[in-house]
Design a protein that fits this description.
TIM Barrel, 17% strand, globular, homodimer, 8 strands, 8-stranded parallel beta barrel
Chain lengths: 211, 211
């Protein structure tokens, strides 16, 4: 999958703690049908084998819908399933190492929480930025918060796509998109909903209207 | 470092929870001076960046003493620091995937707890086996226990080196070595000791006498 012209508008990040008895595969499929344009598998508690097996499942689903598939943190899992992208936080492997093994044709995204980190990540070869947390969330309680003014500055400081993450939901999505960023990244706003398809569709309508 | 003729006699596996205020680097250096012939960095709580940075430190120390350096579980960290080996548990990435990226000249060890797993791991290309847990330990409370009789059967069933792990200390090391295995793997029997050098040296004397 070419990394050019990816649609960053509605970026789903997984967290199995929100999905109850549903399977992650089914939830992701519904989210994509509703409009999720990127999917990141984020697993902080699974064994490597379980992470790998979940990644194989999601790779198949995202591939069927031609939606890019991104692995959080684990370069080895990204290599093992030939993912389209790898997302690295500030506490993950340095991008230089990841790029060496993952290759220049793959997407590497970096989490940033200020302009300085954003500029550095772009200089180090990031393909996109995940900026946040915009609001404190259950998924990342200890995250540094990024104001909408700072988010706008981050977007203006770089030429690569910027996606906002952290506590984004349909009530605040429009004002976040109004900063000029390329998309929103959500976890619970889609996965915690009973009707995932509709939740995804409603968010997609908001982010598309504002682009 | 050629993977031929490695000395599996005294295999140190790290766990920072035992070392108190000492640095892991210093502890590993003392253990090697005492006779540790292999070092595995095992990190279940560190971030990827911290794991990587610890791995860089230990790679330098082990390299200076020409002692092979092995990474637990994380193929990406093993690649990133050009470790000599990778140790995989039954819940980690499949050996086939690891071998594809890590290469045939590197060592891959597999954790096994019975003869069937041992034979399968050898067939899949393992370079050595870590058999255990011999006794329940603080490091792996939920591990399946392997009797000394089963350990002997595992050793007899394969042609690759077998190292025993789990609750091994100077009081039981001789009887474990008497099963014919190639070495013992220890965590707290070295790292929880005040005098790491002497603890390592005493264990080395026992395993060397029995070989």
């Amino acid at each position: 999958m070419s990394k050019l012209n990816w649609d960053y508008s509605l970026y789903l990040v997984t967290d199995r703690s929100y999905i109850g008895k549903r399977t992650l595969a089914d939830c992701v499929k519904e989210a994509i049908k509703g409009g999720a344009s990127l999917v990141q598998l984020r697993e902080k508690t699974a064994s490597s084998r379980e992470f790998y097996e979940l990644a194989l499942q999601l790779k198949e689903i995202t591939g069927a819908f031609s939606v890019p598939f991104i692995i959080n943190d684990r370069l080895d899992i990204a290599l093992a399933v030939d993912a389209d992208g790898l997302h690295l936080g500030q506490d993950d492997l340095p991008i230089k190492i990841a790029r060496e093994y993952f290759g220049k044709n793959k997407v590497i995204g970096i989490s940033v929480s200020n302009v300085q980190e954003a500029i550095q990540a772009q200089e180090e070869g990031a393909d996109y930025l995940g900026a946040g947390a915009i609001y404190a969330t259950g998924t990342k309680l200890d995250a540094d918060l990024v104001s909408l003014a700072e988010l706008k500055k981050i977007k203006e400081a770089v030429s690569i796509p910027v996606v906002a993450i952290g506590g984004i939901k349909k009530e605040n999505a429009a004002s976040i998109m109004a900063t000029g960023i390329d998309g929103i990244s959500v976890v619970s706003a889609i996965l915690a909903e009973d009707d995932i398809y509709t939740a995804s569709k409603n968010l997609k309508t908001i982010v598309t209207a504002k682009k």
